[in-house]
């Protein structure tokens, strides 16, 4: 933590952010594919994304509201939307544990009730939805789902899944659980994720 803080301080003191352009350096007419690469669709609703045309990759969006007003669920929906679009994202959790965040995300991804998932009261059909959503995070996991349909043991399914399969390389959900989160820690984790996922890292949730 101290080393990363020193690195950030040095960068702040020595880095110049100014960029000077002549009118020959920029193209006014942009190809739609180039514009698409610079915009991120949050998936909150179709109207929001259609009117806004997505948000710029460098934008910082602050969501405010009273306790229980839906800030976390909105953040999770944005997070899940990126995953479903084949991207990787980081979720920095300051209040909920990593397990609680994953549980909420799985309930959204599998379209099952969060409270029923927490209380282990899902129907067989709902359990299968969660199993498929969980298996979808890993490569070549179809057989593990078929095995589950035979033995119906959730614990055995997940053990086999994690032991025998690798996570998808470009399509991951990373959760950082840190009650003492700092700017330098966020910067460090984002830097590592950018090095690993490149253009596939489009959204970071704190």
Provide tags for this entry.
206 residues; two-stranded antiparallel ribbon; single chain; 10 helices; 5 strands; mainly alpha
Low-confidence residue ranges: none
Q: Kindly state the mean pLDDT as a whole number?
A: 89
* Shape designation: globular
**Helix/sheet category:** mainly alpha
Gyration radius, rounded:
20 Å
User: What sequence of helices (H) and strands (E) makes up the elements?
Assistant: HHEHEHEHHHHHEHE
Strand order, largest beta sheet = 4-3-5
Proportion in helices: 40-55%
What about the largest sheet?
3 strands, parallel
State the total count of DSSP E strands.
Answer: 5
Report the span from N to C terminus. Answer: 18 Å
Number of helices: 10
Strand content range: 5-15%
Question: What's the structural blueprint in terms of helices and strands?
Answer:
Layout: H1 2-14, H2 32-38, E1 39-40, H3 46-52, E2 55-56, H4 71-84, E3 88-93, H5 98-110, H6 114-118, H7 124-135, H8 142-151, H9 154-164, E4 173-177, H10 183-197, E5 201-205
Parallel strand pairs: 3-4, 3-5
Antiparallel strand pairs: 1-2
Task: Provide a compact summary of the structure.
This protein has 206 residues and is mostly helical. The chain has helices spanning 2-14, 32-38, 46-52, 71-84, 98-110, 114-118, 124-135, 142-151, 154-164, 183-197; strands spanning 39-40, 55-56, 88-93, 173-177, 201-205.
